[in-house]
Model the fold of this input.
Amino acid sequence: MSELVALAALATTLFLFVHNRDLNTKLKEMEVRIHPDITAHQMISVQSGPPARPLTGVRSTMKLLESTGEMSLLNPDNLNNTKKAQQQIVFFNRVPKVGSQTLMELIRRLSIRNDFGFHQDRVQRVETIRLSPDDQASLGAMVSSYEPPGVYIKHVCFTNISEFGFPEPIYINLVRDPIERVISWYYYVRAPWYYVERKIAFPDIPLPDPKWLKKDFEHCVLTGDRECRYVQGEIREGIGDHRRQSMFFCGHHPDCLPFNTEGALERAKMAVERHYAVVGVLEDMNTTLTVLENYIPRFFEGSSDVYWNEISRYNPINKNSFKPPVSEQVKDIVRQNFTKEIEFYEFCKQRLHKQYLALKLPDKR
Done:
């Protein structure tokens, strides 16, 4: 009990420390909610006057494809891996801190609306994302044991369960700007409420060092702290390397272990191309929801309505009020060591945009 009281006191101190810096961030988030296709950075350029807003997102991809002659060749049937599925089970091997909690809540609500089973992994004391071959086979057996149609959700690296003799499911996931994600993860594991929840679930878990909890990301990067040095080819084994989202697509192969390497990047890209029906993008939820609705309609019909009118408007999920803003200068330092992660993110964005453009929907943007 005394540990929980101490943690509550620490939470109050941290909240007061970041509250003022957080107000401006919250105002920007409100503006983005009102204009969901515009990022905070884009809003600055819109408000600044004469210079035209640069093409971004889907429009940028469309211009690129038109310039190469690929636009006319887009066909949704060729870009939809849903048809490869051998069972009506969606496998969402969700990446942490990419909006997956929100997508999970959307799926839960859609399961009632669209009449399918909703299944998620239980909270674990130690969450292992890389599995042995035997554990991968067991996971495949469990996923395939659910009555279709259904969805199974778990934090785990991409697991090709067809390699273990089980029918191919419908794979989905989300990605996020890798720098914003690593910052979000940094503060998420330091949030006092995170440790309160963990302590309640597992009372014997020791509390972390208060100095570690208070460590600021910018200071961590600028001082070359071991935690914030992202070294090319470095391997962090154990429960998994949460610094990068490509790990969740690369899979369980040893080539996936070294940080920011070409081999891991190519394996992640290959898995997306061959197996994933949809990989959405947190920063472009309109496009993500539209593609989900059109490429996996059995499960995602009505996604936009539920998301914008129920979840986004009334139920902000997993917002971390203890995360202070980070300067662009510090983000640029981190970006230098996240080159493959950034390339993977851009690859997923372009694939999503191609899927959207192939639908040839009326332009409402």
